[in-house]
Amino acid sequence: MKVGEEIMSIHISNDERLFHIETKNSSYVFRVLENQQLQHLYYGKRIHVKENYGNLASYQTRGFEVAYTATEEQIQLSMIQNEYASYGKGDFRHPAYQVQDATGSRITELKYQGYTLSTGKKRLEILPSTFDDEGDRSEVLTITLKDDLIGLVVKLNYTVFPDQNVIVRNVEFINEGPSDLKLLKAMSLQLDLSDDEFDFIHFSGAWLRERQLYRTALRPGLQSIDSLRYSSSPQNNPFFMLSRKNTTEESGEVYGFNLVYSGNFQNSIEVDHFSTTRVLVGMNPVEFEYLLEPKKSFITPEAIMSYSAQGMNALSQQLAIFYREHLVNPRFAKRPRPIVLNSWETMYFNLTTDKVLELARCGQRLGVELFVLDDGWFGHREGDNSSLGDWTTDYRRLPKGISYIADEIHKMGMQFGLWFEPEMISIDSELYCTHPEWMISTPHRKPSVGRHQYVLDFTNQEVIDYLFEAISSIIQETKLEYIKWDYNRHITDAFTATLLPTKQMEFGHRYILGVYQLLERLTKAYPEVLFESCSSGGGRFDLGMMYYAPQAWTSDDTDPIERLKIQHGTSYGYSLSMMSAHVSASPNEQSGRRTSLDTRAAVAYFGVFGYELDVTALEAVEAEKVKEQIHFYKKYREVFQYGNFYRIRSPFEDDVVDWQVVSSDKSTSILLHTSLISHLNPGYSLVKFCGLDEDKRYTIAGMDEEFFGDELMNAGIKIIPEGAENGPVISTPEYQSHLLIVEEIKD
Ligand code: DGJ
Prior knowledge:
By secondary structure, the protein is α+β, with helices and mostly antiparallel strands. It is built from 14 helices and 38 strands. Strands 6, 7, 8, 9, 11, 12, 14, 15, 19 and 20 form a 10-stranded antiparallel β-sheet that branches. It has an 8-stranded parallel barrel with strand order 21-22-23-26-27-28-29-30, surrounded by 5 helices. Strands 5, 10, 13, 16, 17 and 18 form a 6-stranded antiparallel β-sheet that branches. Helix 12 links the parallel strand 29 (about 580-585) and strand 30. The relative contact order is 0.08. (2R,3S,4R,5S)-2-(hydroxymethyl)piperidine-3,4,5-triol (DGJ) binds near residues 374 and 536.
């Protein structure tokens, strides 16, 4: 086996026809077939590197399947695990790509040309992407394939990040032929697994009900999650897992997949008639075509795959580290995120300078670090039916201007943030009067409307330039430190005058490229502004947005009991530092549920903490409690935002939820125990900690006993119901939460 001088994770056989990509715990193997196409051999727990895997590479022929050609009768593509499958030459499963040539034919034959190796994953130019800026923590294998007849070159890129067991994939299509080609489908990742003994675990939902966990066994046929909303959407999140049937949080095999993209996606799993499983991850081929003129190329978004043999918690933790190291803006990736007070649920559109400053002042006294003025500060926006696009102060309601408010807040020693919804336009706006043509609509048809608003055409460079200038001047005027980037309706009436009729199907992809361009320019020009993405809550909670906006508003549903499911579901594929979580009023404005201030805060601690609450109206005892909560979060912020997170008991399975965070040095841990329903005369509830050091001695706040790590993890702690005479008096009535704060005893 050849091992390149620098390349340690990518092994290539001496005949240069077998590729073995290794991470710390996984192996990914494929080879070049006799007919120069690629055969996938294995992805799973790490195996020894060999010159060849004769048995894995063997394949059969069967009746009623189709041979590649009459002279290659032994090759039936439907009998082979393919690496990047075409359609129309005998593999009848869904293909990874489809290209139409100038004759109208969709038949392509990609043959192996060669490979290149390099170290240090570079960022993509027009798409958000993973990166290795230091250049020594990743290795890249590029396989070049070509269809000689039409001059189509396809490059399959594999970047290995060995430490986090992550392999990043994407594909480049290049037209080296003389005629136009049309890309009809271009998936970022294909994975053919040799059996179907898996559960499909995905996170689907709706507005106010994002990322609920669904786990179903695979069955023959096609199963998929997707979006055709021009947005990753709250309906289906692009993150999903395939696990073995007995996989739990702590044990068993699990594969995680995600796409670094915010537009339409389609992630599918197909089980064929021989019980093999094909995974495809990428841009949704519905509403997509791309004209590839001679010498032009197209690059797909990146897809991420990660493997764990130690269950789902380990998978989530390695992904959390991976995002921090290789996806999120390094300026913020490890920086403690500020505690927010957001004006929305306190005053909605009813803003006055005095009310805003009174709220901010009160927040400052309680310890808040960042005051965010949400919707309503611009144009003449007194409700949700006007002014989107007019990003200048509403001087009628804020007569001294937004810069005065910003100055006052800065004088209070807090950071200042503002809400924008850059992609939108209201008919009742100056922008619409000047540029009605900037709104997305289809000629001669009445456009559909959502929340009284329409979407701007981000394929139009003038729109992006206008918004860059408008947002820039507010950032400069206010010395802004934070932007909440909202997006409150999905696109309809897709059409743009910027593209020829033959290229209209490029609209969706070009739209999201425009959004990325604006985010790229703003984050480059104003590197100290922290962006938080939002889409009516967690409707665009995806890795494309996370590349620019390191955190996202997890849901408009701020009821802590509902939030348990939403945050629990989100945590499988995203880190706590990505999840913005705020304390709001009780009874909750959406659900009407009453919960204590303690429970509301306890759930919100497990994320980027803040308030969405009229703190000016708090009773003295409540204000004191809020102060303590803020003090508590500041003390343990690093552990909550950047520690290891453990899901011990799930709201999707139990009527008790246990979550735990542990600092990376295992010296501090906080466990949340929350009951969802009350039981009369309950028995003990036993909580077993995770991730501590077996030999370290720990204290638990409020208990005068010392514990060894192994004791807490194996014997656990008895949670004794209310009324017990001895031991830790911890009650578990409905909606009550308890925090167990564990600290190492240092001699
Ligand atoms: C939807 C967001 O999710 C809310 O937090 C708030 O910002 C509103 N939009 C404002 O219109």
